Amino acid sequence: MVQAVRGTFDILPTEARLWQAIEGELRAVFGAYGFGEIRTPVFEATELFVRSVGEETDIVSKEMYTFSDRDGSTSLTLRPEGTAPVVRSYIEHRLSDESRMIKLYYIGPMFRRERPQKGRFRQFHQAGVEVLSGNDNPAIEAETIEMLALVLARLGVTGYELLINSIGCGECRPAFLGRLRAEIGQQSAALCADCRRRGEKNPLRVFDCKVPSCQPVIAALPTVTSSLCRACEVHFARFRQYLDERGLPYRVDERLVRGLDYYMRTTFEVVSGSLGAQDTLAAGGRYDGLAEDLEGPPTKGFGFAMGLERLMLSIPDPGVLAPERGPDYFLATHGDEAFRLATGLARKLRAAGQAVYIDFDGRSLKSQMRLAGKLKASRVVILGEDEVRSGKLTVRDMQTREQGEWTEDELLAGIPADLQGSRGSG
Ligand code: HAM
Prior knowledge:
- The protein is of the alpha+beta class.
- The protein folds into 2 domains: about 15-170 and about 235-320, BirA Bifunctional Protein, domain 2; about 330-415, Anticodon-binding domain (Rossmann fold).
- It has 17 helices and 16 strands.
- It has helices at about 15-30, 45-50, 60-65, 85-90, 140-155, 175-185, 195-200, 215-220, 230-245, 290-295, 310-315, 320, 335-350, 365-375, 385-390, 410-415, 415-420, and strands at about 35, 45, 65-70, 75-80, 100-110, 125-135, 160-165, 250, 265-270, 280-285, 300-305, 330-335, 355-360, 380-385, 395, 405.
- Strands 1-5-6-11-10-9-7-8 form an 8-stranded mixed sheet, with helices on both faces. The protein has a 5-stranded mixed sheet with strand order 13-12-14-15-16, sandwiched between helices. The protein has a 3-stranded antiparallel sheet with strand order 2-4-3.
- Helix 1 (about 15-30) packs antiparallel against helix 5.
- It is elongated.
- The two termini are about 35 Å apart.
- The relative contact order is 0.12.
- The structure holds histidyl-adenosine monophosphate.
- Histidyl-adenosine monophosphate binds near residues 124, 130, 280 and 304.
């Protein structure tokens, strides 16, 4: 039997309701902060990720689903993340606008060939936001993190920690990387082959190494945070001040370098103790210059992405977000003529926005009533031989157990009142 591929999963209707509810909350909050949705393709030219995320990163060197197009002309990659595609689209469509910030959000699947475990999949979903502008004011960072905190509060997520760091800029990082490279060179005998190679090519990536025997060496390496230039120090201090002013608690983690090369200055992660080993719920940072690296206009960038599977695991009472609801009407019929009338009534009720279940299995009225109860229908309309003859419908409210006889017109006329506070078109 063919099964879902390792590291992927289906979202079945009961869970999909929850996903929709969560996505609804995200869209509402992102919208309130002025973000508009962008939808980019799930595959891109491989080069996009090599040039932005970075050749030496785990994502690009080990985890991408890359394939060549059938005619062999292009190397394509299923997107492992959303920032590079958004910046690509921003450049391609000339979205840059000197008079305002461009605020974009996306919700969708990403693909990384990682070892699957709790909270880690090969197809997973991110909700991400990107702020693109000519302005690198750290207040943008604090406001974006405030928005993330609001999303988490609205979903009832508590018990998480905000970790922040600054990884410097084009001014201070090169000197630091030189120091780091020299240090790694001295310790190379104690390091794994990956670390030795990275030490040469992209020494900051050494901090991503998970090999246990490398950890003591890595722990003793100097941190970029301690060698920031004056401008980066000021930026970081103002960022912290803006977080303080907003009452957003945080902890500075000098080893937070993030596994993507496009970051500079501010980086952050939201970690949650409830998640186990894969404890990063959301992560992001500043990426000024990424647009220029991809041949776009000078642009300052800041954003984050949140793993939706991990978000789902952190919500204490997900059922509350999407309470189970049965159909508004269950049409129980007996006989062919009744069934024919019922199909017409079902069409009219559905056109008026009511959710209708109609039984096609020809069961007895009694077992249809039982099914209506099981499906948690709000009302049952009974159409038996008597009803066909009299032209009246027996309508039972399943909650109050009240029952009355209505004509079809009366029933349909009653709908506007019913609709208030009900599911609308859902
Ligand atoms: P990232 O840290 O690679 O950043 O991923 C962001 C989040 O996606 C993680 O914190 C985690 O919640 C989730 N995630 C990543 N990999 C997996 C996986 N295999 N299974 C389940 N969840 C996963 C980025 O992707 C950046 N583009 C974030 C960003 C946006 N930076 C600036 N703007």
